[in-house]
User: Fold this.
Amino acid sequence: MTAINVLVRPDRVHVMTDGAVFEPEGAVIGVMQKTYALAHVSAVIAIRGPTYLGAGLVEALNLANLRTFDDLLARLPATARVLIDHAMQHMNPAERDAASARIDLRKFDIAVAGWSHRRGQGETYRLDTSKPGWHLERQADGFFMPADNPALLARLDAAGWDLSDPEQDAARLLELMHHQRAVPDRLPSGVECCTVGGFAQHTVITPDAITTRIVERWADRAAE
Assistant:
């Protein structure tokens, strides 16, 4: 339950993510960043799924002696699998079974966005851990999640939303986030609710820099 919106341009890559943490039934229980920078390989990672993976995955990759963006692409799938397997093996069995009844603890969408200095271009990839093989799939010009929602697509079409003007990329991506917030998404539990909240974080990767900032905050609060 996370928005990950990635747009690749000739001179940069945009990543916009939200910050709300949800229970499987849709209640907001906190906020956190979901985009993590690996500046030494000109890349960021954004994660959609249970919260236990993010910080540990970034720490493991940061300790993996990565030198290039391609090193990251080569190492990420196996590193993620090891960490997920380790978490499942060492979680309290009763707690694991209770959590698994509410959410698939092994299901993640992991987005990688960065700049390949070898190929001289921005690139983005997606790893869906529910697919066999655990392969990073190139996403060409980018992608957005959630996206497989007919109501959202109809809303975007009615609003005339597009990305035709690169000068308006930041504004258009924030508009997309507003539309994603406005349209309920269907959770694995069958509940329909807003799955985007907390804040909008905009990250930009160029050949020589990564910048990130919070562009908007929302009054999504955990229940007291």
Notes: The chain is about 30% helix and 35% strand. Helices lie at 54-62, 69-90, 93-100, 150-159, 169-182. The CA atoms of residues 35 and 44 lie 7 Å apart.
